[in-house]
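User: Reviewer 2 asked us to show a designed sequence for the structure in our supplementary figure. I'm pasting the structure tokens here. Could you produce the per-position amino acids so we can include them in the response letter?
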């Protein structure tokens, strides 16, 4: 049985020099199915009597798959067998060997030998491509190394590392000193040889904050609206270590968080401002501690700038004159265009939005009842709608068209009545004070006399109620 491979080893040098035999390179990614070609293109070997597939290991040949003249098949003892040479293909003169779940160790030289009327021998060089990342699970900000191995190695190949579709390196080894969430996902090593490309993939898991993905982002909110500041951690977060901070955009100094700021606990440490006020703008930072591979503590954070938008009103004249509305943002660096809209409400609260002008400021010719109601300024960054600011134009005599309920009106009337009462009382008191001051100014001496007389009368009354000795020590006072 072992006679045949032994003969092949002896005859290798001779056979491979012959025209029949060319060495074929086959590149295959780790884990995939390799097909080692052995096709009788010229159909010279009709009616094969035997097919031998063996592998050169050191100086010896090892049978991988074999079919004898008798039709008996031999394959290495392995369950389930990975190597197979599909017999039905023999009819098409195809004796290729299929190896499933290629391992790195499968790389090497293989020999296909077919015996029929003539003999055909093929030598195949199988190269296995393996992509690996070290480590494959990291906390963002850490360093990783990507390596693309080919077994057995060769000079004539080109490498291209691709991360998330875009080229990352043209070397077989690449490293990233500070990994970000954008590096997570599939990494692909492309190996090119003779115009053919084989891809091996691996994946990277980056622990940290998944939402938002970027270190820095901008959030827009209208005054009076609510806004959410996202901050979602992957697992690995050390509990109770999430801190939200706020710094002023201008001075970088710490400023307190707004009154209606609320942060949730746990991996989703997202925060919300229930009602955005003028002045809430600034840089908000969400930071938390993650446990690294060796249990070390690694700080991860996201910065979000809150940009507050509002409509500023300026009117040159009072009454029903023109009004200019300006869309104002605490930071308008990213804004490329504005759009003013008129919002009207029909029956059943149907909203109608009409675009009126594409400018930052908008001039309403007259503040009459016709123009009362909702005006909205939308702001964009290159066609992308970032947010809007709403203004309710109040017009005298148009109060009816406002959406205030009767309960609100009663409160308003009572409030106004109370205010007038308070003002009246204050004015009345001021008038009395004024009267008194005037008297004093007119008769300053009289005030002193009146005061003295009053004091003397008081003392006399006190003395009368007491025993005589009690007054001895008071020479100025005469008890009558
Ligand atoms: C891949 O890239 C796209 C566009 O650059 C990005 O939107 C996406 O988040 C990236 N995917 C990952 C997993 O980082
Ligand atoms: C948040 O503020 C605290 C106290 O001022 C400080 O210790 C911490 O480093 C700050 N965190 C960030 C991310 O700025
Ligand atoms: C509008 O906002 C900017 C900040 O972006 C501010 O400096 C400016 O004073 C505001 N404009 C008006 C008219 O208040
Ligand atoms: C308002 O809603 C009612 C009931 O849903 C419907 O019958 C009516 O046609 C609606 N009116 C308008 C103007 O859409
Ligand atoms: C303004 O923004 C709010 C919240 O994003 C949205 O609900 C509303 O429909 C917008 N209004 C207009 C007129 O675009």
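Assistant: Here is a per-position design you can include in the supplement:
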């Amino acid at each position: 049985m072992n006679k045949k491979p032994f003969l092949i080893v002896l005859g290798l040098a001779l056979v491979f020099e012959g025209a029949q035999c060319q060495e074929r390179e086959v590149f295959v990614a780790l884990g995939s199915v390799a097909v080692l070609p052995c096709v009788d293109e010229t159909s010279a070997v009709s009616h094969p009597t035997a097919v031998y597939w063996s592998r050169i290991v050191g100086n010896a040949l090892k049978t991988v798959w074999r079919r004898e003249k008798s039709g008996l098949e031999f394959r290495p003892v392995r369950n389930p067998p990975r190597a197979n040479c599909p017999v039905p293909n023999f009819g098409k003169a195809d004796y290729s060997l299929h190896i499933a779940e290629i391992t790195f160790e499968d790389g090497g030289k293989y020999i296909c030998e077919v015996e029929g009327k003539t003999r055909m021998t093929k030598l195949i060089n199988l190269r296995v491509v393996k992509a690996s990342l070290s480590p494959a699970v990291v906390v963002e900000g850490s360093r990783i190394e990507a390596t693309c191995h080919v077994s057995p190695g060769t000079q004539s190949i080109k490498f291209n590392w691709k991360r998330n579709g875009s080229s990352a390196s043209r070397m077989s080894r690449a490293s990233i000193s500070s990994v970000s969430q954008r590096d997570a996902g599939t990494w692909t090593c492309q190996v090119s040889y003779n115009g053919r490309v084989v891809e091996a993939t691996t994946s990277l898991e980056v622990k940290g904050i998944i939402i938002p993905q970027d270190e820095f982002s901008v959030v827009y909110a209208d005054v009076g609206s609510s806004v959410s500041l996202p901050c979602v951690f992957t697992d690995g977060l050390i509990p109770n270590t999430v801190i939200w901070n706020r710094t002023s955009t201008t001075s970088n100094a710490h400023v307190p968080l707004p009154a209606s700021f609320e942060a949730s606990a746990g991996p989703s440490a997202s925060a919300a401002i229930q009602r955005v006020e003028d002045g809430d703008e600034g840089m908000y930072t969400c930071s938390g501690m993650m446990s690294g591979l060796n249990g070390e503590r690694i700080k991860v954070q996201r910065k979000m700038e809150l940009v507050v938008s509002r409509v500023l009103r300026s009117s040159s004249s009072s009454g029903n004159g023109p009004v200019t509305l300006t869309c104002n943002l605490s930071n308008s660096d990213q804004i490329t265009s504005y759009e003013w809209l008129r919002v009207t409400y029909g029956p059943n609260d149907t909203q109608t939005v009409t675009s009126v002008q594409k400018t930052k400021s908008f001039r309403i010719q007259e503040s009459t009842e016709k123009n009362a109601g909702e005006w909205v300024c939308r702001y964009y960054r290159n066609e992308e709608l970032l947010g809007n600011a709403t203004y309710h134009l109040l017009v005298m005599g148009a109060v009816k068209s406002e959406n205030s309920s009767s309960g609100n009106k009663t409160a308003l009337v009572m409030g106004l009545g109370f205010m007038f009462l308070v003002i009246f009382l204050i004015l009345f008191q001021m008038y009395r004070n004024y009267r008194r001051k005037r008297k004093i100014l007119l008769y300053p001496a009289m005030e002193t006399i009146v005061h003295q007389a009053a004091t003397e009368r008081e003392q006399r009354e006190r003395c009368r109620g007491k025993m005589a000795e009690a007054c001895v020590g008071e020479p100025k006072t005469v008890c009558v």
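For the response letter, you might also mention the following. The longest strand covers residues 297-315. The radius of gyration is 46 Å.
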